[in-house]
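Please produce the structure of this protein holding iron/sulfur cluster.
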Amino acid sequence: MKQLYIETLGCAMNTRDTEHIIAELSTKDNYELCTDASQADLIMINTCSVREKPVNKLFSEIGVFNKIKKDGAKIGICGCIASHLGAEIFKRAPSVSFVLGARNVSKVVKAVNTEKFVDVDIDYDESTYAFSEFRGSAHKAFVNISIGCDKKCTYCIVPHTRGDEISIPVDLIINEARKAAQNGAKEIFLLGQNVNNYGRRFSSKPKQKVDFSDLLNMISDIEEVERIRFTSPHPLHMDDKFLHTFANNPKVCKSMHMPLQSGSTHILEEMKRGYTKEWFLNRALKLRELVPDVSISTDIIVAFPGESDEDFEHSMDVMEKVKFEQIFAFKYSARPLTKAAEFTNQVDKEVGSARLKRLQDRQNEILDEISASRRDVVYEVYFEELRNNGMVAGRSDNNALVQVEGDEELLGSIQKVKITNPKRLSLYGEILK
Ligand code: 5AD
Ligand code: SF4
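Below is the modeled complex.
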């Protein structure tokens, strides 16, 4: 067997693409996974280009792999930077053997076996492609429900790296979810760039009309499935049907990612997000009303071009009103091919750093209040991972990270846990017998 080392950066879509790559290379070629790059016959980096930093890091990383790799070992670059830079990667890093775009994963066997292979076609349709099976976790199964993204958010490079949005046929999704659940994965994690836009376009006419709410209900009908999660939904498509399905289906976990991006309606317009501050607040507060123990996470970009102090205060205001359980906050990063990169009113780097710090400091205070309120609460926790010092970690239904003392016997089980020591980043507790 040849050895494959693969590093995965970026989002859950990339994590699933990596699983597809491993499956293809182990069933249609002769590779097995290894954890030591210096022993590998093939080193792959599955890249993310959503912000500028990782792009710069990629080339220094290739340099490191050049030094440690075995003689004759190949290096392949896939994912979103591959889509974006294409054959230019060969010029900047001649040791690279192939470049495979984020929408071209199914061609990995050909890529590995063809000298200087490059395919970054974003019109390529992988929506009906039946990949071979490999799963990194026995307990949780990622299942793609769509590829690409039809939104044209002005800051975002993703439509240029993953192409137009196409929904995957419902029977492929159900079969994959059923198979994974029957193999022991109690949790099905649905993936797409805009999951709650599911069903708007298929590559061929579907037999039945299915939207995202219908899909959630269909997956929950699979007996072995106990939990369903998904990412990312778009606030614009959070209609009442979706919120009610989310609230009322007991298998749908009560944690929602609601990427705000900005609290200022003016900046949201510049970003072409399609909703206002008021719409976002209306949806988030309705969600809190329908599902009192819901946890809401978000993404916020600070210092988007033209963001004034007043605009930024609107983001802080939404934070105060929604009290997010988790925030992923980013300083705006100008990306090639995007509209916003051409805007002339870019915000000073120092202003961006100061805003990011203010937002994060306030969020930490909010998180401390949220954690403290969780003392003595009892959660149903699905245990998935062994940690150091004899701890086992899992997630509550509403996505809090919970740790208890225990061993591998707990893995794959759902237990009632009483929280005895809540910390900002993790809740510690005891299993109730
Ligand atoms: N600059 C900073 N953050 C960005 N994101 C996407 N594009 C950019 C950019 N150009 C953030 C958004 C998105 C998350 C995955 O990354 O908040 O939701
Ligand atoms: Fe990164 Fe976006 Fe590509 Fe995911 S889709 S890997 S977040 S650029």
